[in-house]
Structure formats: structure tokens, C-alpha cells
Fold this sequence. Notes:
The chain is α+β, with helices and mostly antiparallel strands. The protein has one domain (3-449). It is built from 17 helices and ten strands. The chain has helices spanning 3-9, 16-22, 38-43, 45-60, 67-70, 90-107, 117-134, 140-149, 153-156, 169-177, 179-184, 235-244, 315-318, 351-359, 392-395, 404-409, 441-449, and strands at 62-64, 80-82, 165-167, 215-223, 228-230, 251-253, 263-268, 274-288, 295-301, 327-332. Strands 3, 4, 7, 8, 9 and 10 form a six-stranded antiparallel sheet that branches. Strands 1-2 form a two-stranded antiparallel ribbon. A two-stranded antiparallel ribbon has the order 5-6. α2 crosses α7 and α7 packs across α10. The protein binds heme C (HEC). Heme C (HEC) is lined by residues 164-165, 216-218, 285, 287, 296, 298, 375-377, 381, 386, 389, 391, 394-395, 398, 404, 407-408, 418, 431-433, 437-438. Residues 164-165, 216-218, 285, 287, 296, 298, 375-377, 381, 386, 389, 391, 394-395, 398, 404, 407-408, 418, 431-433, 437-438 line the site of heme C.
Amino acid sequence: MSTDEEIGHRAQSVTPEDRMLIGVAERYPSDPEASARTSEFAGSMKARREFAWRVVAKILSPAPIAAPKLDPDDPDVSAVLPRFQTWYGKTDVVAAFDQLWVGMKAEAPGQVRDFRACEVESVFRWNAEERPRNLSTWNRDVYNARRAELRDIEGAHSLGRNTRVLMSPGFVGHLLRNYRTLAGCVNKTMPLTQPPLSADNHTLCMTSEFPADAAVIKAGWEPDGPAFPAYDTSAADIQSLLATGTWPAPRSITPPGPDAIYTMRALTSSTGQPRPETKRLAALHILTKELRDWVWISLFWSEKPDLDFGADRPESIRALGAPWSHYKLVVTTAYDEDDPDPGRSYTESAPTLADALRSARPTPPVEGSSVRTWASNPYIERDARNGATNCVGCHAHGGTKLSVQGLLADEAQYPDNTRRRVRAAFPADYTWVTSPSGMDLGAIFKETLDGARTPGRLPGTQPRPCGRP
Ligand code: HEC
């Protein structure tokens, strides 16, 4: 692989200049009625898919950013981004954690306690407004160059760069409030039979489950090149995928233009060097805690976007602009498929979707009367056997030291390619962000608590503890 390709593939992170231009992240507006409909979603593919498209519309809807307000004399910059692109990456979370830690130590050097709700609340504004300016790496020229790029729509889309995982404020706040218990789970073996902490807390590593406005995405950005990968997901394609378990190699096509795929074009690299980079959003995983076992949605780009998993795309998505009508959707909300015929509602209105959904429901049932759900993304779930999965079964192990390859290789322990429910409790409430297989935030929390890592005070910024006891 050439150096250029490596640069294109490597996920970058939200830079301080970008965070300042984006501002504080927009919260996820969760649906308060959703959790009461859990069994309806499990039993009706139609109810499930309609709900999923509504989640997608909220995640993609334009959210205001800080750029126009920062310099009122220069109003010609983009004022909005799709909501998920305003969310926090790992660099934001670690900076917020360090600031809270330093503030706590400033109050009483010997103390270790949970962060107070008001501290967590105020750290987001500090992170977006004060932190960037006080960093030794802060660069006014980079800031101005990035600002100038926001006059062009594809330039604006590059805010936040190709950060792979972005988290809503509700998600990050919960992680920060639980840093001590999450640190306590690092390196623990958590057997499948270990019971949950309580009836209303199915985790092993948090004082409570995530709140309903917790949401997190994982983005698949394809670097620019002469060819672009394309996949087919008709009923026949899904049937052969489930027979082998593994997504086939893609077809190579001419890269789609910005009207056909969400595209970012940065003219400067994250270090401020002029280096044009185009990236296309091929895939988007979306996870929201509106249901107890989360809502699992995945979007993937398609050359034939109105067939099969795109055939029921609602008007609310079309209204968001041309590129967003080129993505297909899969969704699960449970381990087992309780809809006896997931295609039944679509036989007239969307026959290619009806066929594809029916071929994703294995007959005869895998075990007794239970059939596992299916949802997988051809651009992301590339590992062997990772095509015949359902998101929720693998993520149940989030918070442990297990790896994707280890899980998929052990059919005896993790049956049906990880799809079957085998855990009594869910260590980190279904997320991998604290684990070594994911962002490894648990290790950062633990090393800080153990004194192996000492966050420093940032010049010019006084951490402000609030709500003193
Ligand atoms: C076989 C295991 C496995 C399957 C199946 C799987 N994931 Fe993940 N997922 C992971 C791991 C491991 C990570 C962390 C590493 C990374 O970011 O790639 C992750 C990361 C994520 C993240 C970022 C937040 C986090 O928890 O780290 C999201 C969002 C996500 N996955 C959604 C999905 C969705 C939606 C599906 C189904 C379409 C899915 N995943 C299927 C293992 C899996």
C-alpha cells in the first residue's frame, strides 16, 4: 500500500480548530414513546423500519454550528452540518476527562470522586470554546484556512474529518459520570453467566444504563481513488451471503459524484499543509439507546438505491438532499426475529424489499422456533463470517477484552455467528468504546486513577469545579 493510500485510509480525529468551528455538539432528540413499543418493533418489520428511517432523519438533519457566530463579519460560511457530524470523537472525550480530573484535583489534591453533573455539563462548552485557543498547538492560520473552506459545501462537510466514531453529548456525559466503575472493569474476566448489577441496570461496569439520548455512530469514509467499491443486496445476494457468512468482494465502479454520495473535500490536511483530500461516506452505523437493547441501524451506499433495502425510503430522507437518497437501510432491535413474515407488508409497495427481507429470515428456523435477526453492512463487516451477524449479539460483549475475530471464530461459545443471546449481563451496555477492541477509554480512565497517567493543566484555562458539597 502506498503512503498516500495509508493516509487516505487512516481515520483522523476532530482537530481543535474544527471543534471550535463546529462548537458544542447537538444533542440527540430521542423519542420518549419508543421504549413502550419494544415488542411491537420486534414483531413487525414494518414498524421497525419506519422507526429506523425516522431515527436516520434526525441523525442527518441539519444542525447549527458555531462558525458564523465566531466571526460575524464573515457570514458566508456554512451554518449547518448533519447532526451526527457535530458529535464528539475520542480527542474530545479525553480532553473533557482530563479537564474534569484536573479540576477535581484543584479542589482537593488527595481526592478521587465521581464528577458532578454540573461539571460534566459545563465541560462541553469549555471543550468547544476555551480549550482550542489555549492549546500550544493552536494555529490561527489553520483556523483561518479551515474557515475559508466552509464557503464550499463539500469543504464544510470535512469538518471533523473522517473520525470513525462520533458520540452524542448524552453518550459522552454518561461515560464521564461512570469513569471510576468503567476503570474498575479493565482486565476483568466477565463470564457469560455473571448476573447484571440489578433489575434495572443490565450492565457490569456502570452505575446505570445509558440515557435514551445516548447515540453513537461509526462512519465508513472511502478515500478517493480511480475506483469505488459497490455491492448488491438483492434477495439472491442475501441468500448467498447467509450461506457463506462472508460478504463477497465488491464490484469496482467509477466513483460517484457529490450529488450521488455524501462527499467531503478538505483542501488542507489536519496539520494545515495544503493537501486536497476527497472522501466519500460509504457506510454509517447508527446506535441509539431509545430501546433497552438499543436500536441498531446501518446505512450503506448503493448504485441502485431504490431497490431492496432502499425501496421504502420515506419523503423525510429525500427532503434532506440528493446524496442521502443513495443509501439503503438495515435495522435490528432484538436478537430474535419475531416477525413471522418480514416481507408481508411490502409485497405490493416494495416487492424487491419484501424478497430481500424474506431471504434474510432463514427457513427452517435455526433452533426450535427461534430465528435470529440479521443486519450487516458490506463496507464495514468485512471479516470472515461477519456478514451473517445482527449487531446486537456481538456488541453484547462490549466492555470485555474479546475481539471480533475471536468471537466469530468460536461458534460453540457464541453460536449463530454471535447472533444468539448468550450473556446474562452486558458489561458496558453494548458499547465497545471502553474496550481494547474499540477506543480503549477504560484503560485511559484506569491509568489516570492508578497514577500511571497525569493529565496536565492547560495554559490559561482554570478548571472550575461546581456544586461543591
Ligand atoms: C462481530 C462483532 C461486531 C458486529 C457484528 C458489529 N459490530 Fe459494531 N463494533 C464492533 C467492535 C469491536 C467495535 C469497536 C471497534 C471499531 O470501532 O471498529 C464496534 C464499533 C461500533 C460502533 C462505534 C461505538 C462502539 O461501540 O465502539 C458502532 C456505532 C457500531 N459498532 C455499530 C454496529 C452496527 C449498527 C452493527 C450491525 C449492522 C455492528 N456494529 C455490528 C463489533 C461488532
